[in-house]
Hints:
The chain has helices spanning about 5-15, 30-40, 50-55, 60-75, 85-95, 110-125, 155-165, 195-200, 220-225, 240-245, 255-275, 280-305; strands at about 20-25, 45-50, 75-85, 100-105, 130-135, 140, 145, 170-175, 210, 250-255. By secondary structure, it is an alpha/beta fold. It has a single domain, classed as TIM Barrel, CATH 3.20.20.70. The strands form two sheets. Strands 1-2-3-4-5-8-9-10 form an eight-stranded parallel barrel, surrounded by ten helices. Helix 6 (about 110-125) links the parallel strand 4 (about 100-105) and strand 5. The structure holds glyceraldehyde-3-phosphate (G3H), 1,3-dihydroxyacetonephosphate and zinc ion (ZN). 1,3-dihydroxyacetonephosphate binds near residues 24, 181 and 212.
Amino acid sequence: MPLVTTTEMFKKAYEGGYAIGAFNVNNMEIVQGITEAAKEVNAPLILQVSSGARKYAKHTYLVKLVEAAIEETGLPIALHLDHGDSFELCKSCIDGGFTSVMIDGSHLPFEENIKLTKQVVEYAHAHGVVVEGELGRLAGIEDAVNVSEEDAAFTNPDEVEEFVSRTGVDSLAIAIGTSHGAYKFKGEAKLRFDILEEIARRLPGFPIVLHGASSVIPEFVEKVNKYGGNMPGAKGVPEEMLRKAAQSAVCKINIDSDLRLAMTATIREYFALHPDHFDPRQYLGPAREAIKELVKHKLINVLGCAGKA
Length: 309
Ligand code: G3H
Ligand code: 13P
Ligand code: ZN
């Protein structure tokens, strides 16, 4: 099976009341951990690559790793650019075999966001590739964007119909209170489900995307802290909120920090228990296994997409 776009996946997810997991990939062990989990539970997948990941691992290596995973698993997998920040970057990923790109113009004024997103959509659609746009601003840090809490803003439901119809995007990322990274909430976790419901009402049948959806699983934070780490106050989106989102118009849920945390906690523990080991396979193997178990849990218990491939 070749790489697929997200069109069919999102249609089924919307109708079936579940979401597709979009997991960030940076190296072979991460690709293997995620895709082995999806194979075991027969789930469709989106593997996404940030511009930072592309700089780190190089475009061709990541494409070939994902192609190898498709050959090994036979699953429907979409390869997506996460947080594309320019037409040129999106074009390079489209020309280089990605089946989906995000153009993140959320930091731009409305009209400029429309103009840039529309330009990417025209090129992408002419090449059989789908596009995710973004309206509203998440707080947090990612490679290309750093948004302080004061600058973050919920998506305005009054803008979504015009944005979608004028740009022609295939899915829309919205801001309802999640943020990137491991420190999402200072106090109680709160998501604006009222805004999500209003957006879904304005865009019937249209796939919505939730970024910043790691749960920052306490077991892994505790392990990091136990073995020499320092992550006081790390906090993510409670799983029951993600389950609720997955049953709504949200068809794609983005997870990266949880994978990083699972990997780091496992490697920290490994070295604490085996200080004399130095073969990378000895610690990358358990890290890959930790990612696999975590992703299986997400696919079955959080996203609800197990058995939907
Ligand atoms: O939302 C951003 C993702 O977590 C990717 O992070 O840009 O550090 O690769 P990165
Ligand atoms: P997390 O930092 O919550 O994993 O979010 C990842 C994300 O939104 C990637 O685009
Ligand atoms: Zn994101």
